[in-house]
Write a structure and sequence with these properties.
Blueprint (H helix, E strand, L loop, with lengths): L3 E4 L24 E2 L17 E5 L2 E5 L4 E4 L3 H11 L10 E5 L4 H14 L2 E8 L10 H8 L3 E6 L1 H15 L10 H20 L3 E3 L8 H12 L4 E3 L10 H10 L13 E4 L4 E4 L29 E8 L2 E5 L2 E2 L2 H13 L5 E7 L5 E7 L1 H17 L2 H19 L6 H13 L5 E8 L2 E8 L7 H4 L17 H13 L1
EC number: 6.3.4.5
GO molecular function: argininosuccinate synthase activity; ATP binding
Pfam families: Arginosuc_syn_C (PF20979), Arginosuc_synth (PF00764)
């Protein structure tokens, strides 16, 4: 604590997915001032949760309205000050907030930013449920790379409450299969980056996304929407580093410790909603994924031989409880991930159309999300009428496209979300699902707002519905059928 001092700033964090550590040739030019006409929507965003600030091995939890700034030792402070004095090879920026994962890719970005833009670098890491192993040792890595500061931010509750649950309520699925795990995480991370840039006085933000993926679009459209005055530096679209060996060589040249880890065959992105796998043998759509690739779900063949029943409580289209126990959004999802994972629930193998114009195969593990999606949909079968379901399903396709395309703060998505919130006001009740060897099936649903009436729909005789009235359904429409067939 002696080396931490309170300031007026709030320090947040950001998470750069592992998939961004893939190395591709640079394809675009980059750093630029964002013009106001590119702004999509959105005003100032509020800060939520607690900031976790690290320095010299200690971690401090900062209250919502109190900022804590990590201060480096005197020697390191002087070193950073000397390195950033004056301009860089490509121009001059004051301070850059970097989405930082601690991997090789983002580790070499730190000295590259200082060298090319003469700036201080604030490393920014968010916990969106990727796991504690990916957060270990980040402070030491960031400082060794030349960063002036590292801040961790726990965004798990905000991520589930404000991003996942609205998509769940909307029934958003991209291209029939994808439950939008990465697509939902990147706007909450980018929003936090904009917030911290404002609070620490940064004039730029930076990310480690490659020029071939969707991630760059989602980050930068959020930057555009929330603060079009920020500069954006995308090193993978600027530098001459074209692969892992180039990055290692650059790291050695600048005395950046190279992470000593076993290189995975796959590019993975993990958060509380899902785990994605790309690359290696998956690049061939005809190749079956290896059994040991999966990390959060057991093989359905190895799942328990007895089914498990789980009851999900829902209020106005939003899950609130599991087996009668009320839980916070993040805790609820984490619990269902455990339950679904042990039954092999939520494995998806698909070929999707990327925003940059290419097809890409991905394998996704979404155990808890798959359970929740089925639960909400089944409850809607009780509470929504036929035409409302049809309209909702048609809009859900566009909603998913907007989220996939990084347009979370687009007024169109926000307006569609208001519609979804309104029509699901009565989607309250509970759904019981049976989980068995990779499958999810509904066994029961109940709601105080159910539109299903047994006294009307029963095949037994009743006094409410007069079956003779059904004749009125056929008079007018059938008159046109003989005419049509006679003419044609």
């Amino acid at each position: 604590m002696a080396q931490l001092k309170a300031t007026s700033s709030m320090n947040l964090a950001c998470y750069s997915p592992k998939r961004n550590t893939l190395f591709y040739p640079n394809t675009f030019s980059s750093s630029r001032k964002l013009s106001s006409f590119q702004k999509l929507s959105g005003g100032a965003s509020s800060l939520h949760g607690h900031a976790i600030v690290s320095n010299n091995g200690s971690i401090t939890l900062a209250p919502n309205n109190q900022g804590i700034q990590a201060v480096l030792s005197r020697d390191k402070e002087m070193e950073v000050s000397t390195a950033t004095k004056g301009g860089g090879l490509r121009g001059k920026l004051n301070k850059v907030v970097l989405a930082y994962s601690g991997g090789l890719g983002t580790s070499v970005i730190v000295p590259w930013l200082r060298e090319n833009y003469g700036c201080e670098v604030v490393c920014f890491t968010a916990d969106v449920g990727q796991g504690i192993k990916e957060l270990d040792g980040l402070e030491e890595k960031a400082k060794a790379s030349g960063a002036c500061q590292l801040v961790l931010k726990d965004l798990k509750e905000e991520f589930v409450r404000d991003y996942i649950f609205p998509c769940l309520r909307a029934g958003a699925i991209y291209e029939r299969k994808y439950l939008l795990g990465t697509s939902m995480a990147q706007p909450v991370i980018a929003k936090a980056m904009v917030d911290v840039a404002r609070e620490v006085g940064a004039d730029a933000v930076s990310h480690g996304c490659t020029g071939k993926g969707n991630d760059q679009v989602r980050f930068e459209l959020t930057f555009f929407a929330l603060n079009p005055e920020l500069n954006v530096v995308a090193p993978w679209r600027e530098w001459d580093i074209t692969g892992r060996e180039d990055a290692i060589e650059y790291a050695k040249k600048h005395n950046v410790p190279v992470p000593v880890i076993k290189k995975s065959m796959y590019s993975r992105d993990r958060n509380l909603w899902h785990l994605s796998h790309e690359g290696d043998i998956l690049e061939d759509p005809a190749s079956e994924p290896k059994k040991d690739m999966y990390m959060t779900s057991v093989d359905p063949e190895d799942a328990p031989d007895q089914p498990e029943y789980v009851e999900i409580g829902i209020v106005s289209g939003i899950p609130v409880s599991v087996i009668g126990k009320n839980l916070s959004p993040a805790s609820l999802l984490a619990e269902l991930n455990k339950i679904g994972g042990r039954h092999g629930i939520g494995r998806i193998d698909m070929v999707e159309n990327r925003l940059v114009g290419m097809k890409s195969r991905g394998v996704y593990e979404t155990p808890g999300g798959t359970i929740l999606f089925n639960a909400v949909r089944e409850l809607e079968s009780l509470t929504l009428d036929q035409e409302t379901i049809q309209i909702k399903d048609s809009l859900a396709l566009k909603y998913a496209e907007l989220v996939y395309a990084g347009r979370w703060f687009d007024p169109l998505r926000e307006s569609m979300d208001a519609f979804m919130k309104k029509i699901t006001e009565t989607t309250t009740g509970s759904v019981t699902l049976k989980l068995y060897k990779g499958s999810v099936s509904v066994t029961g649903r109940t709601s105080p707002h159910s539109l299903c009436r047994e006294d009307i729909s029963s095949f037994e005789s009743g006094d409410i519905y007069n079956q003779a009235d059904a004749a009125g359904l056929f008079g007018l429409p059938t008159d046109s059928f003989p005419t049509f067939h006679h003419i044609f």
